[in-house]
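B., you asked whether I could sanity-check this one before it goes into the benchmark set. Here's the sequence:
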Amino acid sequence: MVSEVAFSEDHRNAIDAVRELYDGAEGALFGLIFGEQIHLGGFNASTTLADDAGIRGGSGVDLCCGYGAGMRLLSRYRDVESMIGIDISPEVQNVGRQRCVEDGITNIEFRCEDACATSIASSSVDFVWSEDAWCYVPDKDLLIGEAVRIVKPGGAIAFTDWVEGSDLAAGEREFLMAGMRFPGLETMDGYVGLLQSAGCDVVHAQDTGTFNLHLKVIADMLDTQLRWDALRKVSFDAAQVDLIVDGLKLIAEWGNLGKVLQARIVARKK
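And here's what the prediction gave me:
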């Protein structure tokens, strides 16, 4: 039974916008730009998060799972026995299912649901996982509440996310939200407060320190090696690719100034 939540119109509109983004050409372009894992730092970022959370075996849920690459990594390299991937994009999930087949992974289930109201039983999994995806969820308090609801007492909530740092001007925030299609960003302290209020002990909450480095690499690759691939995704609209490259380089510079960060957070349900 899906968790019953009365969503606001703003929440529904934001979720519809994210679904439209990732079901369309722009979502495919994001997949090209950021790679299959669609988070900064790729494989090494995933293994570091898993190590910080002590994930080895057990069952988990990836809230906002995208193509499911994180779940496949945990299944293959951290001996996780079963995972459920929650995402609101049917197209992304279809790709994820096919890639599970290609990778020979059979212990992953995908469910097309809102991450703030899932059909997962309460206190039923050993950990909740996510990587650079909760920035697309408008109601962070509902999301954290759902993560805490489904994880077992003592279980881990482990995630990375883009968060607002210091001195991000209003115009810069507006540009970032529009360019990346984020409904809103949380801060590191904000996430810590939400987790504590929901009944968790926060074990780690730190800036990865690599936001600007990884984003600049991605922008440079898009500007050079991947330019033809990107052009194909947007009907060979060179101006659109140039706008994306320039935008990513600008956001990377904001990361260098500490205005935008990648947070790595691990908490445990009491």
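One thing to flag: The mean pLDDT is 92. Otherwise nothing jumped out at me.
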